[in-house]
Design brief:
4-stranded mixed beta sheet, 112 residues, Translation Initiation Factor IF3
Length: 112
């Protein structure tokens, strides 16, 4: 397996600076060219186990109130939900969209 080089940039190739062309700032601070979405999907099955919970907590920390993250997991993530409730009580509403046996999808909506 050969590693591909990563090119870092302050904007995506071909992106147009919205503020420069319209005089108003973009909807969010980065220059990725994407709009904030009310629903974000994170497939935890592709994240290495050693950093899985930390990655999910990092993603949840970036969710604005009223927005949701749909988490896809290979098992019922009860330990993660317990950690979430312990560290951020009442901050996220949890609803199961898919309940196994192969895949679980849980919507985590930031309440406040």
């Amino acid at each position: 397996m050969t590693a591909e080089p990563i090119t870092l940039s302050s904007s995506r190739p071909g992106a147009v600076d919205a503020e420069a062309t319209t005089g108003t700032p973009a909807a969010h601070a980065c220059a990725c060219g994407h709009e904030d979405e009310e629903k974000i999907v994170l497939d935890s099955r592709t994240i290495p186990h050693a950093i899985r919970h930390a990655t999910i907590f990092g993603a949840l920390g970036a969710i604005k109130p009223g927005f949701a993250l749909d988490l896809i997991a290979s098992h019922n993530p009860l330990p993660l939900l317990g950690q979430l409730e312990s560290s951020r009580p009442g901050e996220f509403l949890v609803s199961y969209l898919e309940n196994g046996p192969e895949t679980w999808t849980i919507r985590l909506t930031r309440a406040n």
